[in-house]
């Protein structure tokens, strides 16, 4: 197993539900610990130049109450910003996206160790959840955490991200991510056969047969 694929093993995943103004929302949570000071992790998650190095280029009025836009991806409003511990944003993509928010929480464990939590809360169309479960967004967030990990350790993103996405290493990474989200879904109370079916659909989506 490569060191990149092994990063899957460093993330804790949880699946749940929450009541929001728009109804019942689904939640996915990722947690891992970084050997980095909380100020460094916060800066990596909030400085536009650094975000572009491990995630996507971002533009907008990047302050509390302002709006942001990730290139080719989600945009929204900056809802809460409490340096260096809490960042919450609406996470809107496409037409009529409905309720969707992402919260990043950081907790210092000593001077050079930080617990990172990312929670995505969204009202998901039933047909989409029934088909893919939490893996639909979970695999994408695993990829984002991989990018942040490589950035914080100084390794940096692959030189050719598109080529890497098609590599055997990336396919194994996404397959293992999908499997872990299937396990987290089952741990949340989903029947084993339901969790397995959503895991297979997610894997087929992210890792299509060649």
TrEMBL record:
Q: Which family does it belong to?
A: Belongs to the AHA1 family.
Which residue ranges does the record assign to the Activator of Hsp90 ATPase homologue 1/2-like C-terminal domain?
35-145
Instruction: Quote the InterPro entries the UniProt record gives.
Output: ASHA1/2-like_C, START-like_dom_sf
Q: What is this protein called?
A: SRPBCC family protein
**Organism from which the protein derives:** Streptomyces rugosispiralis
Coiled-coil boundaries: none
Q: Which Pfam families match?
A: AHSA1
């Amino acid at each position: 197993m490569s060191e990149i694929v092994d990063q899957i093993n460093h993330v804790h995943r949880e699946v749940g539900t929450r009541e929001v103004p728009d109804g019942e929302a689904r939640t996915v949570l990722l947690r891992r610990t970084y050997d980095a000071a909380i100020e460094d992790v916060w800066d990596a998650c909030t400085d536009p130049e650094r975000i572009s190095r491990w995630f996507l280029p971002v533009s907008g009025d990047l302050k509390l109450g302002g709006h942001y836009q990730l290139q080719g991806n989600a945009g929204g409003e900056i809802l809460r910003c409490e340096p260096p511990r809490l960042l919450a944003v609406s996470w809107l993509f496409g037409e009529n996206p409905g309720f969707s928010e992402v919260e990043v929480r950081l907790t210092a464990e000593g001077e050079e160790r930080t617990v990172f939590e990312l929670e995505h809360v969204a009202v998901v169309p039933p047909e989409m959840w029934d088909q893919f479960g939490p893996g639909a967004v979970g695999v994408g967030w695993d990829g984002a955490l991989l990018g942040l990990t490589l950035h914080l350790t100084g390794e940096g993103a692959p030189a050719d991200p598109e080529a890497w996405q098609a590599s055997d290493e990336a396919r194994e990474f996404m397959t293992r991510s999908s499997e872990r989200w299937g396990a987290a879904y089952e741990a949340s109370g989903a029947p084993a056969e339901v969790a397995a079916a959503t895991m297979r659909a997610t894997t087929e989506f992210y890792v299509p047969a060649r």
